[in-house]
Specification:
CATH topology of the largest domain: Alkaline Phosphatase, subunit A
Helix content: 25-40%
Bound molecules: zinc ion
Radius of gyration: 25 Å
Strand order of the largest sheet: 6-5-7-1-8-18-2-19
Number of helices: 13
Distance between the termini: 49 Å
């Protein structure tokens, strides 16, 4: 009797232990494979990747330590804001977003268009049909697609965090895009090495730190996927200047040139726009000979490279809104304002934006050598099991993801 009783008890204990073990496995498996319930899509304008090492912002560094950092990020050329913000938000190159510059020339409409917006879907537009409540604070490319939008002030880091928290707390938003713009503002005015840029970085860091503290207090930090990214870097003006302003070189060679909407006249042949580089648009589709004659003039300028159709196509540029030619300063050169105060971007040298991810499904404490800003959208969509729009050209950063 006693042995039988002991045996029964043993089998009950073993059974209970097996059930507990199964439960642990199930719960553990569910947690490991759980999709993020929240996405914070944070973009800091003009936040150069090496600001992290140089200035060591504590809250951003802590997120990086728990996530995946990409050390060499390929962004969109020219490295100016509007085409880059469009590509970050859509996962597509300028050839597909149709956005070549902050202001670009549209040949079929024969006019300059400022602040162009993409006609293809942004990540917010892809998430909404899957039931996501979406909101954005200052992330202007997302504005048409989100249910809730506010512009808290481009350089106002604390107000931006206030707006994000308000969307999470009061609007039931599960996707929030936001731009922290103070790094770009301080970088342009004072240059990347200035105390003002340090303060901008630390101000964003404090605001993101407060956001993380809110997520933890609400108990949703571990359910939240955070990407922190940027559109481009920032440089001080080089001391060496190109020998001639490209618009002047073309005018001197006999081309009739405009550099603004006000200068665009009936007789104008070529539009030249400043985007850190110079974007050269022929008003009418140029013949091969005409294009070559202009390119030959531009190649005489010391300190620049002249990029033609083949090079621009390889960079994902639009077949006319990114220009027919781009005059790009060689390393160590600027086209104008050499040695001037403040900072610039637009050149290849400013292809060094910050990018990291932290949250469910993302590996921990990993540095990846390379990825592109167009890869951000498909990577986030994979984690929440939403199919990317057909216009997405980026690829999932598989090496950033936990093994399933
Ligand atoms: Zn920018």
């Amino acid at each position: 009797m006693a042995a039988e009783f002991a045996g029964n008890r043993l089998s009950r204990v073993v059974g209970a232990l097996v059930r507990v073990a199964l439960l642990v496995l199930l719960v553990g498996g569910a947690l490991r494979g759980a999709a993020p319930k929240y996405i914070l899509f944070l973009t800091a304008d003009g936040f150069r990747s090496d600001y992290i090492e140089r200035l060591q912002p504590p809250h951003l560094s802590a997120l990086i330590a728990e996530g995946v950092r990409v050390t060499h990020v390929t962004n969109v050329f020219p490295t100016v804001t509007t085409p880059n913000m469009a590509s970050i938000a859509t996962g597509a190159w300028p050839r597909t977003t149709g956005i070549g510059a902050n202001t670009h020339y549209v040949r079929e409409e024969d006019r300059l268009v400022s602040a162009p917006r993409p006609t293809v879907a942004t990540i917010a537009g892809m998430l909404r049909p899957a039931g996501w409540v979406t909101a954005a604070a200052g992330h202007f490319m997302l504005q048409p697609a989100v249910e809730f939008y506010t512009a808290p002030g481009y350089g106002e880091s604390e107000k931006t965090t206030d707006a994000i928290i308000d969307f999470l707390e009061n609007k039931n938003a599960h996707f929030v895009g936001a731009i922290y713009g103070s790094t770009d503002q301080a970088g342009h005015r004072h240059g990347p090495d200035s105390p003002e840029v340090r303060e901008a970085v630390m101000g964003i860091d404090r605001a993101v730190g407060r956001l993380v503290a809110y997520l933890k207090a609400k108990g949703i930090f571990e359910e939240t996927l955070i990407t922190f990214n940027s559109d481009h870097g920032m440089s001080a003006f080089e001391k060496r200047q190109a020998s001639t302003e490209p618009a002047q070189a073309l005018a001197k060679a006999g081309f009739r040139v405009a550099t603004s909407a006000a200068e665009l006249k009936a007789e104008t042949q070529i539009v030249v726009l400043n985007a850190g580089v110079r974007i050269i648009y022929f008003r009418a589709v140029p013949s091969g000979a005409e294009r070559e004659r202009a390119a030959a003039v531009l190649r005489q300028i010391e300190g620049v490279d002249v990029l033609g159709r083949k090079e621009l196509d390889a960079l994902g540029c639009h077949d006319n809104r990114s220009g027919d030619l781009i005059v790009s300063p060689k390393a160590g050169f600027t086209i104008s304002n050499a040695g001037g105060p403040g900072g610039l971007h637009g050149r290849f040298a400013e292809g060094n934006p910050i990018l990291f991810f932290r949250g469910p499904g993302i590996r921990r404490a990993v540095n990846l050598e390379a990825a592109r800003t167009v890869d951000i959208v498909p990577t986030l969509l994979r984690l929440v099991h939403v199919a990317p729009a057909a216009t997405v050209e980026g690829k999932v950063i598989e090496t950033a993801l936990e093994a399933r």
